[in-house]
Design brief:
heterodimer, A: 297 residues, 4-stranded antiparallel beta sheet, elongated, B: 270 residues, alpha/beta, 6-stranded mixed beta sheet, 12 strands, globular
Chain lengths: 297, 270
């Protein structure tokens, strides 16, 4: 099945070419893949931004239970840690998380049993810094004042996450570039095939006074029409898939997956995928036709 | 003066200057075609056209005759710029074709109307769209395109077939579409390869009258044909090809007039 041409009258019968049978559907496939890759890049970008805003300047102190050890009780050690934190330079707030909050954090992994009071739960202190903190000195003072306390500097793994998100974003954009390159090659092939098939007609048009641009415009209209229509179909399919994933992620009870919601401007960006594909097809078709026709008398 | 041809190599008749001279072309901007010692060969084969020399002035009408394989189509292809000569000088509308760049060719070709022997119609286009091709290439407004093409198709008797595809037309109808296409943009030079080959005598005569109208309006016309009846009916000079060589035969009327003059001046006839 071939996509019907947008413009019914063309001096070259391109609509009945074999190239027309696949160019439209290949455009649909490319737009589908490009839209998914672009959406993936944007979602990862959003996720990295949320991590940044939520965790930058944050520290977590964990005071672990030490059954049988000759140390103060868990609550006393947690209080000692709080005292150290609140007096340490660069620390804005230090908040001890309640049992309910800790249970909620652990629920995705432990289920409803996380609220069992018999479980030896550590004490967690959420720390927010408002300036540079000497993490090594703080760690030393904490272990001395509250044995069993460990300091988790978010900046370390946040940097890892940032570079990981960057790599994913780069890979997604690489996929988009590869799809663009494949689109260029497909259009070059289709146009060259069309020129070979219709060489007698092109020669006739030349003899009647057609310029190379006149001939190239015929090909441009043809490939742009097919790219727009194929790209539109691909975008619709990608949009449906993204919406389905969004709905599926909302249905999950545990929030293990990142948020898969696209912002309105991001949907607009996806709408540009078929347009970009059509522009790429237009430029490629023009370049291919003009270069090929240069060798004709 | 109309239709002067000088077959002597390198000699160009220039009516505006009132004489004939080798250097005439450069200043004789009115010359439509000038061939000088032109040869054409395909690949490494022997020349199909040899030492062709002639000039065509604006508003001239010539029949191109010769046996099959004599080189009529090859000569026409040189004239409508489908081929470049293997040797010799070809000028068109005063421009040396050896110096014309590829970029300049479309403008020159738009001044030439061609009726191809095999019609060369585009099967996926209607009769009207086929005829409209030269106008659309020239950027004519679409409303004018439709009006002009409809009018000329009606004139050649195809008013009821404006939107018919060539595959539904008879040979004669296709030929009339091809002729309508060749003259739609009022070319300065009209070349026709057997334009009456597939039509009956009545239509053939009507088409020749159309060519004559264009000729009277200043178009230079060259018609390749085997149709002796038409050649006799329309008294124009002939470019006759024989085995790749060209002879220029004056119009029959002129021959008879010369014979009459000769008889009048010869006391033996009295």
């Amino acid at each position: 099945m071939a996509l019907r041409p947008v413009r019914p009258r063309s001096d070259l019968p391109l609509a009945i070419d074999p190239s027309s049978r696949f160019l439209g559907w290949i455009s649909a496939l490319m737009a589908f893949l490009a839209a998914l890759a672009l959406a993936g890049a944007m979602l990862v970008s959003d996720m990295a931004q949320r991590w940044d805003s939520g965790l930058a300047g944050g520290l977590t102190v964990q005071v672990a239970p030490m059954p049988g050890a000759p140390v103060a009780s868990l609550d006393e050690r947690a209080e000692a840690a709080l005292t150290v934190l609140r007096s340490f330079p660069g620390i804005r707030t230090a908040t001890l998380l309640g049992g309910g909050e800790i249970a909620r954090l652990l629920e995705p992994w432990l289920g409803a049993g996380a609220t069992d009071p018999l479980l030896p739960m550590p004490r967690l202190i959420d720390v927010v810094a408002d300036g540079p903190v000497d993490v090594a000195a703080l760690r030393l003072r904490l272990t001395s004042a509250a044995p069993g306390a460990t300091l988790d500097d978010h900046a370390v793994w946040l940097a890892d996450l940032r570079s990981f998100a960057g790599a994913i974003r780069l890979a997604a954009l690489g996929v988009v570039v590869l799809i663009g390159a494949a689109a260029v090659m497909t259009v070059v092939f289709a146009v060259r095939t069309g020129l070979a098939i219709h060489r007698p007609v092109v020669e006739l048009l030349h003899l009647m006074g057609a310029t190379d641009r006149y001939v190239s415009r015929q090909f441009e209209r043809h490939v742009v029409g097919l790219s727009l229509r194929g790209g539109g179909i691909g975008l619709l399919l990608a949009g449906g898939m993204l919406y389905g994933l969004h709905r599926a992620s909302q249905g999950l009870r545990a929030s293990l997956l990142p948020d898969l919601t696209l912002q309105p401007w991001q949907w607009v960006a996806l709408l540009l995928v078929p347009v970009a594909l059509a522009v790429l097809a237009l430029v490629t078709a023009r370049w291919t036709v003009l270069r090929t026709l240069e060798s004709m008398p | 003066m109309r239709g002067r041809v000088d077959s002597a190599p390198g000699r160009v008749h220039c009516p505006e200057r009132g004489g004939v001279g080798r250097e005439g072309l450069a200043s004789c901007g009115g010359t439509v075609i000038r061939f000088e010692n032109v040869g054409l060969r395909y690949g490494t084969e022997a020349e199909v056209l040899r030492d062709i020399s002639f000039t065509l002035q604006p508003g001239s009408f010539h029949f191109l005759t010769g046996a099959s394989g004599a080189g009529k189509s090859s000569l026409l292809k040189l004239m409508y710029l489908a081929h470049r000569p293997s040797r010799g000088l070809v000028t068109l509308f005063g421009r040396d074709m050896a110096l014309v760049t590829r970029r300049d060719l479309p403008e020159l070709r738009r001044q030439i109307g061609v009726v191809f022997q095999d019609f060369a119609l585009l099967d996926h286009l209607s009769a009207l769209d086929n005829v409209a091709l030269p106008l659309r290439m020239a950027g004519t407004p679409e409303a004018d395109v439709v009006a002009h093409c409809s009018e000329i198709l009606r004139w050649v008797g195809l008013g009821n077939h404006l939107h018919a595809k060539p595959s539904t037309l008879s040979g004669g109808q296709k030929q009339r579409v091809a002729i309508a296409r060749s003259v739609i943009n009022r070319p300065r030079l009209l070349l026709a390869d057997e334009p009456t080959g597939n039509v009956d005598d009545g239509i053939g005569m009507r088409l020749l009258y159309l060519f004559e109208e264009l000729y009277k309006l200043g178009t230079t016309v060259v018609i390749a044909t085997h149709n002796e009846a038409l050649i006799r009916r329309f008294d124009h000079p002939r470019l006759h090809l024989d085995n790749g060589r060209l002879m220029v035969l004056p119009a029959r009327g002129r021959v008879e007039a010369r014979a009459k003059d000769a008889r009048a001046n010869d006391p033996a006839w009295e």
